[in-house]
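Lecture notes, part 5. Sequence design as translation. It can be helpful to think of inverse folding as translation between two languages: the language of shapes and the language of residues. The source text, in structure tokens, appears below.
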């Protein structure tokens, strides 16, 4: 076997473990502390927001989603949903009081896109963990001082809880 084939074989064998190593398990599996976000996301008195509504900062909100084909997303998600039965939604986000790093933390599986004038903002960091009540994924973005659009897609249910909080 040539060296190239050995390297490919090693990469293929190690890939599943590497992918799992990227994601933690339990609430201690996140790359940064999410105590504030988790406490807000598990509250039962969260506000509910219909598709197309305006998200607040630093307040957990339950987003009402639609089937992907009916969600009328402003732009196709940067990553296509894995399931044809997934849900999606889009929401306005006002300009932050102070531009800089913010966390968008979601309660379940899903993909987060931030749009700035129709262009994708790319995350500066992300973390995820399974088996943690309240939080599933947190993505950090460097938000500019102007209104933005948030899209959520690939969500397995018709609602998801989210909080947009300053990175600390």
């Amino acid at each position: 076997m040539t060296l190239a084939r050995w390297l490919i074989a090693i990469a293929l064998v190690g890939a599943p473990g590497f992918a799992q190593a990227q994601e933690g398990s339990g609430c201690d599996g996140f790359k940064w502390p999410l105590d504030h976000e988790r406490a807000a996301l598990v509250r039962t008195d969260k506000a509910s927001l219909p598709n197309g509504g305006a998200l607040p900062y630093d307040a957990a909100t339950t987003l009402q989603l639609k089937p992907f084909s009916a969600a009328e997303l402003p732009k196709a998600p940067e990553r296509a949903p894995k399931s044809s039965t997934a849900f999606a939604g889009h929401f306005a986000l006002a300009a932050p009081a102070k531009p800089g790093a913010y966390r968008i933390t979601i309660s379940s599986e899903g993909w987060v896109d931030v749009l700035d004038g129709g262009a994708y903002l790319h995350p500066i960091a992300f973390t995820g963990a399974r088996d943690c009540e309240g939080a599933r994924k947190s993505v950090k973005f460097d938000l500019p001082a102007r209104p933005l659009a948030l899209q959520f897609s690939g969500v397995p249910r018709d609602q998801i809880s989210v909080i947009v909080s300053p990175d600390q």
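The translated text above is only one of many valid answers, since several sequences can fold into similar shapes. The chain has two helices and 13 strands.
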